[in-house]
Write a structure and sequence with these properties.
The chain is mainly alpha-helical and about 200 residues long. Helices cover about 75% and strands about 0% of the residues.
């Protein structure tokens, strides 16, 4: 098994570890969960870069890499829905937002399976990549804002991320902005992808 495929498989393991830690009661569980998610995000970046640079693209990677990405991102957003609202500064991720993200990923996966059944290869689009980056940034920003709100990083964290802007920390505002950017980009990228490839599912209606 080549290195990019090993990194892809590691992302599955990191996602499972992320969820286990996220719903545990261990000390600093959100910080550990954040570190695991960042590690998964880095593996996502590295496996694609290495596969293209070394020409190690395989059928396994073509199938599993996007699947690992979708499971990682969808798991994170569903987990964020579960975050409690005990602190008024906690960035809330609404259930309907998670539904938009999960529905988009399922729809595009279904479209690609349909295309494969017709021997058509659907290339990744640029806005899809921007969508993935926005999702990962949103998850990281929300985690940091929630960690700061719960003072998990103490005075150091407050000094870096906690200075206030209009009753909330600047980290809270950044998380709120990227949360909406991720949801909007996810919806738009999915709609555009479905429309561009509409011939695949409309021709035989």
């Amino acid at each position: 098994m080549n290195l990019p495929n090993k990194l892809t498989l590691s992302r599955f393991g990191l996602t499972v570890a992320f969820l286990v830690v996220m719903f545990s009661q261990m000390p600093f569980h959100q910080t550990i969960a954040l570190a695991l998610f960042v590690a998964a995000g880095i593996s996502d970046f590295l496996d694609g870069q290495i596969a293209r640079r070394r020409k190690l693209i395989t059928n396994f990677g073509i199938l599993m890499d996007p699947l690992a990405d979708k499971i990682m991102v969808c798991s994170a957003f569903i987990a964020l829905v579960e975050l409690g609202a005990a602190h008024e500064s906690v960035v809330r991720f609404a259930a309907w937002m998670a539904v938009v993200i999960v529905a988009r990923e399922l729809a595009i996966t279904g479209l690609r399976l349909l295309a494969a059944s017709k021997n058509v290869v659907l290339a990744a689009e640029g806005y899809g990549k921007h969508k993935t980056v926005s999702q990962i940034v949103a998850v990281i920003a929300i985690f940091i804002a929630n960690i700061i709100a719960r003072n998990e990083w103490g005075s150091v964290g407050q000094a870096i991320f906690g200075w206030p802007i209009s009753s909330h920390s600047w980290a809270w505002w950044v998380a709120e902005i990227f949360k909406w950017v991720a949801v909007v980009l996810t919806f738009i990228s999915g709609a555009l992808y479905l429309w561009k490839n509409r011939a695949l599912y409309l021709d035989d209606m």
